[in-house]
Amino acid sequence: MSIPFEFVVDAPIVSQQTRRSHRREAWIDKVRSSAGATWSFAQPVHGAVAITLTSFFYGRGLDVDNIPK
Fold it and tell me: Phi and psi for 28 in degrees, rounded to 5?
């Protein structure tokens, strides 16, 4: 069974490998908040999860190999 679930995080992506842990924690909180505002089910999902990530950015070049990290 597939449950479609889509949400938008309106903020620049922060690498999970960043040395600036405060930026990483702020990013995680932003993602959690954005997802939580959309998730309407009472229970978390157990089992396999598939993710499609679409990133939109403006300005200087971005290292696209690091986006999924």
Answer: -60, -45
